[in-house]
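Milestone 3.1: sequence recovery, worked example.
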């Protein structure tokens, strides 16, 4: 038996309107949430048209001109705008009857391309029991016939399986929202061996280490530690048949472990560094979970991923901005101080779910509104955009010498390097002994 997709009723009208404009086809993304029992589709978003596409409409209809890279780039941009719990569930295509045969092959190819593109950016690993089926929705523009199939993106040889596509009103009206604020103070060393001070690569490596800390953190939901296998809404009243959005909000505190447990063995590593990157600030994170007996572990997993994604996405956006403004071939750097883009949230009509975006300080509200229309095909009012947090920063600090001390410092460094080479074993042993005594003192003094 195939998977069931419960779909927000308004999506049917959206797809119908798109089908009247098809010449000869249109593609898009399906956005929603996976669960063990069924999947939920809360939005469908068409692929933004390219300017040259208007000129390419001459000749017989064909799918050979389908721009796979354009579609996967759109998916990556959209995924940044999704809070925890939401993801790109699949792709859709509305096409004329002449393209019906080729549509399914094109959809299959797109599903795997989109998943490959999105997985490259993730700093977390999917859980073993996680749903890996993604939807391929095919709609005939003439007959309006809907065919939904799924493919397992973890299996490159996966064949199509039939799936049910069912519309439902007020799908997310009773979903649960979770929110937290995470204070960030991450110090990332820049290795001297890193070519051309590859800031982006070093930052990603540092965030990778930090993401492991988030994965191992303790999450208090409304002040309580709950067993992961219990129901999130256990003991709470349920409002069945309520078609009006009613927010059930859970406040979450994140307790990050400061050190490894006593059973873990650690070693000291000495590395030569050319500088450091410091990420500082407080980030606002949100996640949304379906109301069909969700487990605590589902909610915590969704929030963990939002914490990791939001900081990773901001750094990615910052480096893209730096490349646009300064070029990709920047070899030398002085001390640089950058402000990370701030997160803002925008409500979805008829739902408690809010989508997000990131705003640099000099960006006008009109630019954000244009981005929502282009990426999510959703008009947004300026007054509905809520900036959620204060400024977070990136401080890039090279190791430099004072100009007046340069001549004196060079021979001193040369002697020091020679001395270190002669006594490296003693120096490393002494350093490890000192660190061990410090950690031992801290442990017993606590």
């Amino acid at each position: 038996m195939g998977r069931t997709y419960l779909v927000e009723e308004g999506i049917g009208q959206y797809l119908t309107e798109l089908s009247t404009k098809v010449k000869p086809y249109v593609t898009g993304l399906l956005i929603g949430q996976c669960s063990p029992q069924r999947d939920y589709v809360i939005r469908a978003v068409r692929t933004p048209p390219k300017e040259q596409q208007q000129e390419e409409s001459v000749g017989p209809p064909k799918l050979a001109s389908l721009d796979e890279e354009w579609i996967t780039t759109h998916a990556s941009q959209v995924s940044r705008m999704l809070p925890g719990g939401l993801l790109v569930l699949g792709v859709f295509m509305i096409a004329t009857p002449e393209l019906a045969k080729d549509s399914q092959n094109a959809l299959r190819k797109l599903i795997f391309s989109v998943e490959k593109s999105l997985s490259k950016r993730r700093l977390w690993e999917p859980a073993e029991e996680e749903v890996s089926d993604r939807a391929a929705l095919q709609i005939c523009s003439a007959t309006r016939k809907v065919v939904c199939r799924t493919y397992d993106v973890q299996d490159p040889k996966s064949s199509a399986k039939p799936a049910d596509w069912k519309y439902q009103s007020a799908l997310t009206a009773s979903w649960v929202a979770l929110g937290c604020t995470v204070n960030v103070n991450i110090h990332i060393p820049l290795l001297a061996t890193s070519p051309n001070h590859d800031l982006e690569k070093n930052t990603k490596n540092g965030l990778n280490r930090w993401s492991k800390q988030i994965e191992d953190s303790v999450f208090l939901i409304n002040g309580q530690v709950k067993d992961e296998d219990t129901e999130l809404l256990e003991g709470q009243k349920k409002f069945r048949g309520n078609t009006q959005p009613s927010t059930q909000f859970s406040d979450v505190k994140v307790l990050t472990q400061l050190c490894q447990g006593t059973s873990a063995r650690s070693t000291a590593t000495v590395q030569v560094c050319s500088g450091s990157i410091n990420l500082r600030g407080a980030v606002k994170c949100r996640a949304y979970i379906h109301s069909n007996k969700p487990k605590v572990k589902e909610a915590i997993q969704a929030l963990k991923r939002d914490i990791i994604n939001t900081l990773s996405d901001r750094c990615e956006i910052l480096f893209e901005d730096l490349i646009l403004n300064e070029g990709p071939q920047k070899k030398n750097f002085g001390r640089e101080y950058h402000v990370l883009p701030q997160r803002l949230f925008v409500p979805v009509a008829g739902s408690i779910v809010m989508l997000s975006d990131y705003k640099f300080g000099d960006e006008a509200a009109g630019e954000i509104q244009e981005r929502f229309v282009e990426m999510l095909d959703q008009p947004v009012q300026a007054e509905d955009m809520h900036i959620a947090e204060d400024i977070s920063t990136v401080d890039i600090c090279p190791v430099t010498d004072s100009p007046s001390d340069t001549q004196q410092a060079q021979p001193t460094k040369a002697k020091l390097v020679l001395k270190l080479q002669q006594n490296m074993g003693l120096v490393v042993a002494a350093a490890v002994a000192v660190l061990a005594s410090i950690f031992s003192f801290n442990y017993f003094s606590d």
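The first helix runs from residue 9 to 19. The CA atoms of residues 126 and 132 lie 9 Å apart.
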